[in-house]
Design a protein that fits this description.
With 287 residues, the chain is an alpha/beta fold. It contains eleven helices and ten strands. It has a six-stranded mixed beta sheet with strand order 6-7-8-3-9-10, sandwiched between helices. It has a four-stranded antiparallel beta sheet with strand order 2-1-4-5. α4 crosses α5, α5 (123-136) packs across α6 and α6 packs parallel to α7 (183-200). It starts with a strand and ends in a 13-residue tail after the last helix. Mean pLDDT is 85; it is low at 282-287.
């Protein structure tokens, strides 16, 4: 479904200098597979996700999407009929549904937008498809006439998922889709994603900083740090027997339910950090 090879992305200009956001990253994603792309904020994981579906073009490297090479135009967004056809076979869920849904459009208009752009069916067929999609994300089709601000955060994110699935994609890119939600709502959205993935069989690149989320739904895990890929492998291997020292520290920083053990682990990390033996991890990187 997706093959990223030696991907490099630089931002900046000749005047201000350049920043390497992604440095020689390679990975692949198979049909029906969920790959968890994990890293701290600023690690480059969202940039990789945008390159994967042509929202951003890399400085170097290549991306094969659904078996075809993406057209690359340096420093600009790739365009063209080929890219449009490939994108119609993909879906994307952004982090904040409040900003990714147009507040001036009704829920029906938001969900139907991909269908309209792809010229899929007539108005009656699109209306029926919207009702089907709303039911698939466990929402009453009666919400179709409401506006995004009238719904809760969890409901808006389910609307975003419904829109992403409108064209029955073969690949779904989910960029931190639960980070703006509270824990109980996160669980509902994750359960929904797993059910839909099992039913529809799409491949999923799931981008997150949350190791608990990855352990719940990913088949494989890829870990990024400062723009580089530090480790990839099966979920249990990466989370329970990591090969890279950074991954081990990332896993060790994840909170545990036992408050006594959690205090002990925190004290040990602070001791190591004060001795200069363990660089600090960004707060929330393994929440």
């Amino acid at each position: 479904m997706l093959a990223v090879s030696n991907l490099t992305v630089d931002f900046g200009s000749r005047v201000s200098g350049s920043l390497r956001a992604v440095d020689d990253v390679s990975f692949s994603l198979g049909s029906g597979e969920i790959l968890g792309l994990v890293g701290e904020s600023g690690s480059g994981k969202s940039t990789v996700g945008r390159c994967a579906i042509g929202l951003l073009s890399p400085s170097s490297g290549s991306v094969r999407l659904l078996g075809e090479s993406l057209p690359v135009v340096r420093r600009t967004v790739a365009r063209g009929g080929k890219l449009r056809r490939l994108r119609q076979r993909c879906g994307i869920v952004f982090q904040d549904p409040g900003s990714s849904l147009d507040p001036r459009m009704t829920i029906e208009e938001c969900v139907a937008e991909p269908l309209i752009i792809a010229r899929a069916g007539d108005r009656a067929a699109r209306s029926a498809r919207v009702a089907e999609l709303l039911e698939s994300v466990r929402l009453d089709p009666a919400v179709r006439g409401r506006y995004p601000h009238e719904l809760s955060g969890g409901q808006r994110q389910r609307i975003s998922i419904a829109r992403a699935l409108a064209l029955r994609p073969e690949l779904l890119v989910a960029d931190e889709p639960t980070s703006a939600l509270d824990v109980s709502v996160q669980a509902t959205v994750l359960d929904l994603l797993l059910d839909l993935q099992a039913e529809l069989g799409f491949a999923c690149l799931f981008i997150t900083h949350d190791l608990a989320v990855v352990s719940f739904l990913a088949h494989r895990v890829a870990v990024m740090r400062s723009g580089k890929m530090v480790e990839t492998g099966e979920r249990d291997q990466v989370l329970f027997a990591p090969a890279d020292d950074y991954t081990r520290r990332l896993v060790a920083s994840a909170p545990v339910p036992d408050p006594v053990e959690q205090r002990q682990r925190r004290a040990e990390r602070l001791t190591l950090q004060s001795a200069g033996l363990e660089p600090g991890l960004e707060q929330g990187a393994a929440s």
